[in-house]
Amino acid sequence: MTKISGSSKIRVLPGFFLLISFSFSLSTLAADDRVFFQVDPDAHTSEITDIVATKDGAYAVTGSLDKTIRVWDLSLRREVRQILGEAGEGDFGKIQAIALSPDDQVLASGGIFGPETSASAGDVRLYDFNSGTLKRRLSGSTSPVTDLAFLSDGAYLAAGREDATITIWDCKNGYAVCHTFSDPGIKEKVNGITLFRDQDAVLLAAAVGDNLLVYSVTAKLLVAKKDMDDPVYSVCIDEKNKRIVVALKFSARSGSVYLYDYKLAQKGFFNAESGVEDLSIALSPDAGFILVAGNTDKNQAVLFYNDVKSRKYLMFPEVEKVSAIAFADSSRAVVAGGTENALYVWDFIKGEEILLSKSTPVIRDVGIDSSTLYIGFDKTGAGFRFDLAIGLQDNKITEGIRE
Fold first, then answer.
1. How far is CA 5 from CA 26, 37, 94, 283, 397, in A?
2. Which CATH number is 293's domain given?
3. What is the pLDDT of residues 302-340, one digit of tens each?
4. Taking the model in full, what pTM does it have?
5. Do residue 240 and residue 324 come from a single domain?
6. pLDDT by residue (tens digit) across 188-233?
7. β pairing state of 78-84 and 362-368
8. Number of structural domains, the chain?
9. Exposed site from 105, 311, 331, 396, fewest CB < 10 Å?
10. Chain centroid to CA 87: how far?
11. Is the same domain home to 35 and 184?
12. Gap between the Cα atoms of 391 and 372, Å rounded
């Protein structure tokens, strides 16, 4: 087998000032002359579904429906490596959730990890975060994972699923299954989960359909339940102030954030001003800020101070939907979304927004003749289309542009 690899940077059409940079590899098999071609645009090519950050705020990790996990160096402002798992046709391999252990040693990923209804579809994959190697799989359910969470001391890992169940593993006991929670009256998927401690008890808050639930992992029972009448999209915990923070649809025009104590007595409420559906919510490490974003026509994420009386806005001119958010530290947030799967770092203290990546151009067509592989790209909204022709002749790569 012959392998040929290289990189290409191409400036396209005077006046458009579009620089395309990617890496590629070609492999030919002498047996049947098949050609395999791979383009990596150094960006996610489908929706970014989840973001986590290392404890020191040096790196952000993103999972995507493009079946890749990417690690970003926030000081270098670029991707530094990928963590790739087994993937197949269709949805097999899509990443829907990731979580990083508190010591930054274990990266958990979940999603659709097998053909539909297969025994592995609901697996959770555990990677050594530093090396990217797969350590083990946590099996036991065929329902895909929708969210993941570690307890703050790393003692437990929880996975919410599309079938409304929540699985808890004991990380200190060989990842043995501790319990599986479910409510017989709820059939909608789990939208969000978070693990936390209240004195000696380990608790789990879950957004499931229109419901907000609190389970005791220690006692293995339901502690509190509240029907919110509208979809509860996201949940996080403010252990410093002993509050559960949830985001949900409030009206046809607005999303809202509710604050509850651990028994689900309401302690506060405010208009999120950040969209109507698919709201994401995050709390800064020092619990000083609440970040809310979602599907909105305002193209913005909203940062609330903990007293919720003052706020800042981050505008995204090209992002009509924020798909994932996370705090890197107490002064920076990482925000993803839009049709170009853009990834931003927002330093809200300095007032700086930095674009890390976006997935243009997009490959739309691929064709091949006896000597040349033609790849058709387009640039959304740019008003033109072009082909980049890459040919393999005498073990040399030739390239050119045609309008």
1. 6, 10, 27, 43, 9
2. 2.130.10.10
3. 788 766 667 787 766 656 688 899 999 999 999 998 778
4. 0.81
5. yes
6. 999 999 999 999 999 999 999 999 999 999 999 999 999 998 889 9
7. unpaired
8. 2
9. 396
10. 17
11. no
12. 4
